[in-house]
Design a protein that fits this description.
The protein is an alpha+beta fold and 203 residues long. It contains six helices and four strands. Strand 1 (48-52) and strand 2 (59-65) form a beta hairpin.
């Protein structure tokens, strides 16, 4: 099947400026997010789209395209970003809505990456966060796994790891945010089976 087209960005900066100028930009977090939005729309990172939801500038929806010339190429991966009033001093809650098979992504979409945890810095903005996550797809850290099965396959069986990832890349083309239940159950069943095989091989 043909790879999907890049989602078109939605330019909302001017509308948000009008709405939040009326509120005199009372919140430092809101002021910073407006700057993030302006920067993102003026210089959007390649293969990444992000916009605030229609209800709040504190919640964003994002899409990351799988990097070209990697096993993730062609994937359309959806994320949700939730900011608190402590932003940018506190990292936002960022998680994948699309189902993922990756060493550093938990089953619920939560991401294990330094910049969203103990290495967070106020200098990071929306563009920097999403660019880092796009890089994480093809350059995982198996030494700090969120998904132990994915981490083991990445190190010990790259061929099987690639096969699993490609399944989810194709699934992402029709992902409605809930993921495919049958594929998810299949992944859950595979994990204990692989652990048993490993234990048998060690005997």
């Amino acid at each position: 099947p043909q790879n999907p087209k890049t989602p078109k960005p939605q330019y909302l900066y001017s509308g948000w400026i009008d709405n939040y100028n009326c509120r005199k930009m009372a919140s430092p977090a809101l002021r910073r997010l407006v700057r993030d939005l302006k920067k993102f729309e003026e210089d959007p990172p390649e293969g990444i789209n992000a916009t605030p939801t229609s209800d709040s500038l504190m919640e964003w929806e994002a899409v990351i395209l799988g990097p070209e010339e990697t096993i993730w190429e062609g994937g359309i991966f959806k994320l949700k970003m939730v900011f608190s009033e402590e932003y940018p001093n506190k990292a936002p809650d960022v998680r994948f809505v699309s189902k993922m098979f990756h060493p550093n992504i938990y089953n619920d979409g939560t991401i294990c990456i330094d910049i969203l945890q103990h290495h967070w810095s106020p200098i990071y903005d929306v563009s920097a966060i999403l660019t880092s996550l796009q890089s994480l797809l093809w350059d995982p850290n198996p030494n700090s796994p969120a998904n132990s099965t994915a981490a083991k396959l990445f190190v010990d069986n790259p061929k099987e790891y690639k096969r699993r990832v490609l399944e989810w890349v194709e699934e992402s083309w029709e992902d409605d945010g809930e993921g495919d239940e049958e594929m998810e159950k299949e992944e859950e069943q595979k994990q204990p089976e692989e652990e048993e095989k490993k234990e048998e091989g060690a005997d």
